[in-house]
Design goal:
This protein is α/β, with parallel strands linked by helices and 175 residues long. The chain is built from seven helices and five strands, in the order αβαβαβααβαβα. Helices cover 39% and strands 17% of the residues.
Length: 175
Amino acid sequence: KLIECISKFPKRTMLRIIGAEPTMRSDLPDIITRIKSQGHKVSLISNGLKLGNENYVLRLKKAGLRHCYISMNGVDNDDWYEIIDELRCAQRKIQALRNITKHRFVTDLGCILVKGVNDFAPYNMMQLLHKENVKNCVVRFKTIGQIGRYMDQTNFTMEEMVNTIADQVGVSNDY
């Protein structure tokens, strides 16, 4: 039914595969292939853990995937990941970044800034991207929202977030 539905979309529509964790589906490569066969583009939104396996990344690429968004809330710091995502997974996420960079995926990284937890994530992210020789990617910093799992931290205001990022990456903070 999914393929029947998207066959009616205008060609070259960008479809994002998102929800729960899409890489847990054993048929994800087939879904990507079927979407691509309808003339559409596909983007995968993932926690990135399974993308730490290079063979899996190659299967997705063979299926036609070229665009990945990986959540990297803890960047390279297991303590941050444990507080925010309840996992110690920094090395696995870094390996996922290496894999998608090596295989020339369009790369998006997302990082939720949690006041008092990963305040230095923008700096760490810039250092990581430099260290891993990532030349082209989009990095999206967000603050924790008012919905979802409750966290005891206070949200950054937009101005605080902009100033934090600007200060750490050495750019003007013309908010």
